[in-house]
Amino acid sequence: MTALPFLADIESVAPTPILVAPQPVLRAVAREVTPEDMALVRATLPGMFSAMYKAPGIGLAAPQIGLGLRFALVDVADEGERNPLVLINPEIIEETEQLAAREEGCLSLPNQYAEVVRPVGVRMRYRTLDGVIEEMDADDLLATCLQHEIDHLDGILFVDHLSKLKRNMIMRRLAKEQKGR
Ligand SMILES: [Zn+2]
Q1: What tens digit of pLDDT does each residue of 49-105 get?
Q2: CA distance between the termini of the chain
Q3: How many Å lie between the centroid of ligand 1 and the Cα of residue 126?
Q4: Is 152 part of any known ligand binding site?
Q5: 3-class SS string, 129-174
Q6: CATH entry 3.90.45.10 includes domain 5-92+121-156
Q7: Which of 47, 77, 87, 97 could make an SS bond with 81 (beta carbons 3.0 to 4.6 A apart)?
């Protein structure tokens, strides 16, 4: 994949502010990235990576910084290592029947966590920064992360996979915490 030279000194890059729910842009369906958008996408990457690593988080989708475009970052490498991925127009093209529950959180729902049931494995198709179409098989943590980030591009938050009762509880708790900040 394309080198991301700014990552060498990412600590010196100002993190782009991450929007917290409920923000309407987090609930909107983002549009496809076109070649004309690529300059903007590239320009947003340093601030987005900085924000994701600083949080720290393992994924960040463009709507979370208020940009309604279908791209996201992920990095599920162990602490102290890096494996950054930029996904342009990603889509899940296959998923396993087998499901698994995994605890999820979200930088747009700070301090809120819940177990979400999703397919344990997926195949994803996406474009790289160079415009090359690639496919990737993922399972476990990476599969969860990819599904979570692609959900963001469709205005879906992890709490939408929970019961209404649980979702309302989390959203109320979040609103209360945000007020108290
Ligand atoms: Zn999220």
Answers
A1: 999 999 999 999 999 999 999 999 999 999 889 999 999 999 999 999 999 999 999
A2: 40
A3: 18
A4: yes
A5: CCCCEEEEEEEHHHHHHHHHHHHHHCCCCHHHHCCHHHHHHHHHHH
A6: yes
A7: 77
Task: Identify the CA nearest to 14 among candidates 72, 70, 53.
Answer: 53
Annotated ligand binding at 145? The verdict is no
- Residues 30 and 133: their CA atoms lie apart, in Å, by 19
Is 149 an annotated catalytic residue? Answer: yes
Q: 180 pLDDT band (50/70/90 cuts)?
A: confident
Residue 144 alpha carbon to ligand 1 centre in Å: 11
Position 5 scores a pLDDT of 92
> Is 106 marked as binding a ligand?
yes
Domain boundaries, the chain: 5-92+121-156
